[in-house]
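User: quick one - fold this with 2-(butylsulfanyl)adenosine bound?
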Amino acid sequence: MSVAQDYLGRMAWLVKELNRHIYNYHVLDAPTIPDAEYDKLFRELQELEAAHPEAVSNDTPTSRVGAAPIPEFRQVTHAVPMLSLNNGFSDEDIDNFDRRVREGLDAGQVDYAAELKFDGLAMSLRYESGVFVQAATRGDGYTGEDVTANIRTVRVIPLRLHGDDVPAVLEVRGEVLMFKQDFERLNERQREAGQKEFANPRNAAAGSLRQLDARITAQRKLRFFAYGIGLLEGAEMPQSHSAVLDWFERLGLPVSKERAVVRGCEGLLGYYRSIGEKRGALPYEIDGVVYKVDRVADQRALGFVSRAPRFALAHKFPAEEALTVVSAIDVQVGRTGAITPVARLVPVSVGGVTVTNATLHNEDEVRRKDVRIGDTVVVRRAGDVIPEVLSVVLERRPTPEPAVYTLPAQCPVCGSHVVREEGEAVARCSGGLTCAAQRKEAIRHFAGRRMMDIEGLGDRYIDSLVECNLIHGVADLYKLTLDDLLKMKRLADERDGTTPETVKQGKVATKWADNLLAAIEASKRPPLERLLFALGIRHVGESTAKTLADWLGSLALVRRAPAALLRVLPDIGGTVAEAIADFFAEEKNQIALDALLETGVAPQGEHAPKAALRERLDEVQLLAALGIPKLTEPRARQLLDGRTLEDLAFLKVFGVFGLPEALVASLESWMAVEANREALMKLSSLRRELLDALPEEAAAPEGALAGKTFVLTGTLPTMSRDQAGALIEAAGGKVSGSVSKKTSYVVAGVEAGSKLEKAEALGVTVLDEAGLLALLGQANQ
Ligand code: IVH
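Assistant: Sure. Structure tokens for the protein plus 2-(butylsulfanyl)adenosine:
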């Protein structure tokens, strides 16, 4: 075959292949290739076309901006086409862009409006005399779909523009997207309802928008950020893009705060880096940043080349998805025995990091994605989370087809049965702490930096200690002797074939072992919350541990607190409360904890329960927290009505209180269980005991912010919300999680969401970080 035919064949193939992917991505919302792979093919085609302009075919994807819309929605012709952006990837690409702009304008340094490249769906919103009349998707750039009814349900989009001075016609261009948190929640709901989960927030936003029934869209939390003007009539066009965005903000349109005006290539790269650092902390996904020449007159002078403006460039982040092949599927055994299938991958670079393993989450996930050994898969690495397998490229499945994956029936570490309880997604090894894998993980967790913080006790030593049978539970750590450690080290070195020369010569290094023993000793007085976190109670993370420590004050009280008491503490729900109470009720945990305390481990700084606990010991709340089926808080109030919890424990018949029949039946069968009756009595006496021990009136907090309640929302510029909260509390103020009429101030940072809206609606004073600091500054005077 001649060289000429070679490139013709390649170009034809690229056109066909890219068109197919565009169709899958834009029309079907079912991507068949990672963006990075697509971009690579696209660039290859662009280069070939530039080298052989005579061979450019008329259906080349480089000449169009998308694919035809799906037919169900009414079609809308865009008055001004919705084009796309050229992409840049390297510093050099940005330098070239800036140079071309300067040459085109015959200018020295150029000011650019820099903003985020939102990873959502492009949308055009039409306002006539300030009233929202139409929303259209991009479609193929010239014709889109009428999604007015769906967009009307997006709460952040104003149905009427703010202010009196509104243009006759304004078409706003922007991006519809879903926040990461809303996406997680949606998937949780989908999972619970047995419905299909979405692969990422972008797909979830697309799926939610493409609903013929707008009521479904209304249940999905879609957002919008405006980034440009399509059409403007009856008003003067602002002179710069940055002024357009400021104007949008005044009109009540959501605009991201992460925008800036920067100068020259250096300014652009500085912006790119600063956003790159913030990316993970943003509440939504972005796939890069966008630079636009700021002056509108300059934009017009530069104009467009075929599919994209010359005055703008998208600077994309390195791809976080890549294609590779699954070489094996193994399982890992976690701290709680959870069996997690893990795909072993042919090493691949994802966003600059080599990935060799990716989690498959659980059995259902493997089934849903139908991942098999030998499959080509899309792997994704977002931020510093564990890489995951997103989907299988079915077209590349080897023939004959590999077998469907099934989880092993026995734990690969200890051979115990693998069990999966009804309604649980996770399968577990039934070996408990007899399983070395679970023991290792439990000890690893216990010794971790944010838990007991035993320095120098790395994974390798933990593995060896468990394998040599030197430690069975965490208490054994505190019984280790120098001899034990030296024996462990000798065995570990032998096993790994790394015995040092000096040791072979008969010398024994003991300094490391002395240091480790000292570190173990030093870990014996942890703050209570760290000890609680270290115990590895299911569902108890750092923040729940802190709540327990702050409110209950002592390990002794945490140990004996029934679930109903735990449940009335802030941010502790039913599942978590049950998990904590179950943990401490379990005999083997009691033995392990007593053994630990016997070694001299003792939490430091224990204190009496928090005075504010008094309010939470309300009998109605406690009764409702018992988890009696059908017993809601209002019903609990009706039932108590002058009676005490103890009174109730002596009742057998509940038909006389005017309660609904179903509830009466539920109460009677609950009370018929002796253990429940006892639990009620115990709860009541613990309540009484706590009330007696608590100070009568919560002492009025001192400090200048005493009596003031704050709600923190969004990302603050120089400190974390926790730090800000600590400052407020130190000045006597209170920090709450939700906005109400009683809130004194809302401190809002970047991307503050519904709390800010609520504050505005309720007329609560909103401060930024500087405002808060000013208030604290006054407070300190
Ligand atoms: S401006 C003529 N600004 O990227 C230029 N687009 O490849 C019109 N996008 O379809 C686009 N964030 O969906 C612009 N800040 C931003 C953007 C942005 C995301 C998307 C948009 C567009 C695609 C262009």
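One thing worth noting: Residues 83-85, 115-118, 122, 138, 175, 227-228, 290, 309, 312, 314 surround 2-(butylsulfanyl)adenosine (CB under 6 Å).
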